[in-house]
Amino acid sequence: MTDSRTPRVLLYLLDLVGVAVFAISGALTAARTGMDLLGGLALAAITAIGGGTLRDLLLNRHPIFWIRDARYLVVILAAALLSMLWSAYLPPLSHALLAADALGLALFAISGAQVAEAGGHPPIVVVLMGTMTGAAGGMLRDMMSVQVPLIFRQDIYASAAIAGIVVYLLLKAVGLRSSWAIATGVLVILGLRMGAVLWGWHLPRLHSAG
């Protein structure tokens, strides 16, 4: 009984933590770009639920996760307000925005993959849905704050999500426990993304023969 409940509990916890971290990312962006309180809350919400909402719409999951469970909105509100208070009265932490974004990407990519996997979709759809869940919220945040989205920049972003989800699926396929596969997938994504932030890792550039 406990065994069958574990993946569902882990999925829910990943979703809640991912929502909180992406809400912090959105609120920090709003504070950095000089938005007001309402703008900060709106950007935090868009960042936190944008990817998951798009995933649920494409997978025809209704009601959408944050409508079905209002605790997601409470988590967004609390995380956004706390991070905005921090940025208003305390010095900003170095790389805080990029670290929050990297953790949100890792958590949401794996939780989004689990949602698609639970729906019985093939591995390629699982990878696509997980990557979209992790990356779309940050992309919407950057577009709303008039920045070039991280996913379109040269450093590793969506490719980190893809790599982590593939590792997660491979570990599940060889019989590793779900919790260990989840943890490893999250760490792969987080490690690749933070490597890009700290050491400038990036994918090879394409060069035209002309």
Question: Can you characterise this structure?
Answer:
Helices cover 76% and strands 0% of the residues. The termini are far apart. Helix 1 packs parallel to helix 6 and helix 6 runs antiparallel to helix 7 (158-173). The mean pLDDT is 87. It has one domain. The chain has 8 helices and no strands. With 210 residues, the chain is mostly helical. Belongs to the UPF0126 family. The chain crosses the membrane at residues 9-31, 37-58, 70-89, 156-174, 181-201. Keywords: Cell membrane, Membrane, Transmembrane, Transmembrane helix. It comes from Rhodanobacter lycopersici. Pfam families: Gly_transporter.
In helices, the fraction of residues equals over 70%
Strand count, sense and barrel status of the largest sheet are:
none
Overall radius of gyration: 17 Å
Strand portion: under 5%
Total DSSP E strands: 0
The number of distinct structural domains comes to 1
Distance between the ends: 62 Å
- What string, H for helix and E for strand, traces the elements in order? HHHHHHHH
